[in-house]
Amino acid sequence: xxxxxxxxxxxxxxxxxxxxxxxxxxxxxxxxxxxxxxxxxxxxxxxxxxxxxxxxxxxxxxxxxxxxxxxxxxxxxxxxxxxxxxxxxxxxxxxxxxxxxxxxxxxxxxxxxxxxxxxxxxxxxxxxxxxxxxxxxxxxxxxxxxxxxxxxxxxxxxxxxxxxxxxxxxxxxxxxxxxxxxxxxxxxxxxxxxxxxxxxxxxxxxxxxxxxxxxxxxxxxxxxxxxxxxxxxxxxxxxxxxxxxxxxxxxxxxxxxxxxxxxxxxxxxxxxxxxxxxxxxxxxxxxxxxxxxxxxxxxxxxxxxxxxxxxxxxxxxxxx
Length: 320
Hints:
Elements: H1 2-23, E1 29-33, H2 40-56, E2 60-64, H3 71-78, E3 86-91, H4 92-101, H5 109-112, E4 113-128, H6 137-146, E5 152-155, H7 161-173, E6 178-181, H8 185-193, E7 199-203, H9 204-212, E8 217-221, E9 246-254, H10 259-273, H11 276-284, E10 288-289, H12 294-315
Parallel strand pairs: 1-2, 1-3, 5-6, 5-7
Antiparallel strand pairs: 3-9, 4-7, 4-8, 4-9, 4-10
């Protein structure tokens, strides 16, 4: 009897899904940002939320739930009802690499979330002090080969994307170099400018002022295309080093989000991203727009997850 009732309840729920999607949205939508208010992710969420509310006819309320490197807020969405009223604008940390950095992560992004759309991405940058007398990424790597373990590369902290990128670079180029973690971008940049470390690896947007002022020399960006803010800096790929690493932002929902809701969200958010206002805001934070289909985000999550899994497990990096 219990099994029969359970089966009937499941059938009733499944039958209600099309009607649920057809009536959606009938109330305000919560867009969780798993980072503090005032940052770039928060600003983008508020812009997208405002424009999305105009298109959907319902308020989109941004809710900041920071903690555990973005895991806390993203986990809340993973455990929310799959009705289209709770979404997250998260980043590649919680959506790809944190599952390997945090051994006790309470959700699996590829199993417990529904990808909706990728918003934008920021490449990493590799820079050195001009005093180092190195003019290219290959030159830095040649120095590392000649002096194994002597060349030092600063990063903004253990497990950050800057740290992972440096480890990926070392692996791809087959060189030994000393990773030096700092507590944030500023001290890492300061010590590189001062010559206390040889190089620095972090999001390119943090390096722009120092490179433009001539205090640092940009050797490479780790995107497929050159960074618009520093067009003179070549990509690592251009220089024969197959390193691609970006921090990206995306909107996701709980597992089981109705396909009609996903399609509607994807269509409307693609339209928002295409506006001059949104592109200008992305450019303000050094991000290139992505957009595209939910399936493209599925592929991005899977490829980044596989890439960083190998790097993290090989180097035994952990944040627990």
